[in-house]
Amino acid sequence: MPNRRIRRKREKQLLRRTLDAARSVLARHREVFEALAEWDRDPAPEWLRVLGPVPDDARVDLRPFVAGGSGITEAGGEPVFEGWTQRVVILASGTLGIRAIVVGADATGRLTMASDTVVRGPFPASAGRTADTASHRATSVGGRFETDGEFQGTRWDGAASRPPTASEIVALSALAGDLLRRPAAPASPEARH
Fold first, then answer.
1. Which of 30, 56, 61, 81 is exposed most, by the fewest CB atoms within 10 A?
2. Integer Cα distance of 187 and 117 in angstroms
3. Chain-centroid distance, C-alpha 125
4. CA-based Rg of the chain, rounded to a whole angstrom?
């Protein structure tokens, strides 16, 4: 009889440890699920979304347009990008992400290019992120506006790309027009690089 009691006691202890371990794994799975669900709810403010509105009080930096190298000239010897400018807006929200909008205009003020990029993250480590998994999510739309009104650009969602839709082009054009109309301040020397 005493051996039977000892054996039952050990079996109960083993079952209790097994049940406690299973509860611990279940709790961890719930944490991961909740972290992923929170990530998927995308709690970002509207201005931290590609083609979203830009806050009225956002700083617009005015910078000279710099091409891939200096000395690029037309046949007549005039610098191709003389007088061209770009307006840059950088919006950040702590750990939620960062948004960079760049709008280019030629010397006459005509819109030449625009891009809107949002990098969200980091992906919550509590959701099982490892060194091998992506920790941020990048989305962008951008390209150049031709003199005939055509738009040549790309929409990126992570590593996948596609041509932007007509509504995305209209939204990007409206966003660029808004920034071209806003007062801009010369960028600080540190911000120009």
1. 56
2. 19
3. 18
4. 27
**What pairs with residue 97 in β-bridges?**
93, 120
The tens digit of pLDDT for each residue in 55-65 reads 999 999 999 88
Q: How confident is the chain (193 residues) per 10-residue block, as mean pLDDT?
A: 80 83 76 60 80 95 74 56 90 86 94 94 58 69 94 91 96 96 81 46
Q: How many Å from the N-terminal Cα to the C-terminal Cα in the chain?
A: 83
Q: Write the CB contacts of 102 (distance below 8 Å, at least 6 apart in sequence).
A: 86, 87, 88, 113, 114, 115, 142
User: What one-letter code names the amino acid at 145?
Assistant: F
